């Protein structure tokens, strides 16, 4: 995604060069080569940081290592090819219950936290957008949870959810939040929503700010109440920004690791996610199964992201592509003028 | 122009090659690692000592003393994270890439088997150490299949901390020796007005390594084992059942407070210091913390220590601590060996105990009058360590401890009856030890 969007402006620029040079076709071929040259560092970096880990994980998932001992009690060295056995073990072997439980948890956390964060984040954005006095203070304070590192916020919540913590003091009843059960899931959801709703709020706020005020004015003149204004003006117009925020949250939620790990603990079935499973296997030197878990999680994320973009039409790259097309046409007329819209992803704080 | 093309294609080719070679690179791991048996420990020069974060601040002083005396064989401390899991991970990674960055490794007692079996550490020459001067259980924890792969550097054993003041008020002269006695004592103590709102006893029962240690203590104190001398799992025995039943019963009867299922060391320590517990099973570091006069402890001077209570035999502690080993991939192994000898020498161990109160590994220091005056719990600690048993010594310790935590936690939190939990555990351990 990133590669194509960053290359576009370059190609547009190089294409304009041959005008003053010789034949059009030859110039195009030359430009193609120049483009390849200029892009090769990018490709090299991408291959190194994206392609290599992916391929390496796929490869590892087909091997097993260090599982056997020789007669003197030493570990037999070297990798053995086991084909798809690691995957088979995960989905229907001894580890199946643990995997499906983690899969269920991951999906459950993704659905519940993202739904709540969207509603609360939207509300936050509206408040931030409208708060007239102390607007800066409101915005800054809403963003504080997002600025706290996840592991730190998890630790913070763990103290609050401790047996003698403030939450139990408030509800006046001792709940052991970090033990197995639905309360553990609830604790994770609360902490996650607290931390990431501001992220949705921030992106939605950016979307709100580009809605022209005269639309509301016109609506008021036509006698639309504020509820109607929200549903018919605000929501449709903020939808592109909101969907991007939700997509990012979904991807984030699917690879949730640090929050349940620190807040509830390792190996707690009630809050175990797929990334935690992969980590657990890797830290016990079972690299094959760990890579298999990671690969499955990767495909799961891809499928969910794909479905989301297809079904809900999240305009993550579409809009940028549209703008680029416009930009390119402009380039055709005037070579120097090629300010293709910056790709959307870059605007978003990671 | 031609040149440019070549460069362009060259760049593409490099990219492709990078990707390909990278894929191939990970495949080549393993292979034949050296010959078995003892490798000669030779080579002198600078080395490193990889260890967890030194919270005492005394380690650098010990190393400085060595460095002063050995100008050509300087030791540099490589400080790893504070968390044991992270330390292990870094050491494992270092071994897997066969790096010589870490020469001497400070291994937790339970990792020693794994590192030895993977040939990540070399065998040490037993005859060069006076092993009979060391605490025997600590030495055992440094062996794998009868061979010495590390030397104990720090030891640790669980102790029963108890509220001396309350026991006296209730007319009890001696700390309890068994769980039954402890339960009876608690009934008397908790009847006192001073003990309102207190609970009887706690160890560490959160689902983590501490649970394995506490369960191992219970099983050993009931005369059983988790993995017997022949390396066979043995948690389907009546002893193991008695042990688990005692803990489960403790939770059910309220002898162990129900929030103890969330306790790690620090939680139980705080509970004891806040005056919420009459008895507590914990490492000796509790002594200094509970005697802190900065207001963090409500029990300064009101407690004492005793050996852990037994269940149907004498109380047995789980041994903790650290062993020093030499990485198989290190340079200057002769220097490394000398450094280990220095760190385990009487002089070093004594000065370290005085500076840090960490349990030494030499037996005679526990009876040293000067030291006992400073640390009155030393004789009790010695008894605890001398009677201590290691946690199961297995290669895939991570899997074994995980299986134990899984089943025991399910039993303690009432999700599974003890019979079912133990037979499930037995089955899992059989699978894990078969390999």
Structure, described:
The complex is a heterodimer of chains A (about 350) and B (about 425). With about 350 residues, chain A is mainly alpha-helical. The relative contact order of chain A is 0.12. Helices cover about 70% and strands about 0% of the residues of chain A. In chain A, helix 10 runs antiparallel to helix 13. Chain A contains 15 helices and 2 strands. Chain A folds into 2 domains: about 90 residues, no CATH class; about 220 residues, MetI-like (MetI-like fold, Orthogonal Bundle), CATH 1.10.3720. Chain A starts with a helix and ends with a helix. Chain A has a two-stranded antiparallel ribbon with strand order 1-2. Chain A is flat. Chain B is α/β, with parallel strands linked by helices and about 425 residues long. Chain B has 2 domains: about 180 residues, D-Maltodextrin-Binding Protein, domain 2 (3-Layer(aba) Sandwich); about 200 residues, D-Maltodextrin-Binding Protein, domain 2 (3-Layer(aba) Sandwich). Helix content of chain B is about 45%, strand content about 15%. Chain B contains 17 helices and 11 strands. In chain B, strands 2-1-3-11-6 form a 5-stranded mixed sheet. Chain B has a 4-stranded mixed sheet with strand order 8-9-7-10, sandwiched between helices. Chain B has a two-stranded antiparallel sheet with strand order 4-5. In chain B, helix 8 packs across helix 16 and helix 16 packs antiparallel against helix 17. The interface between A and B is large, with 45 and 52 residues.
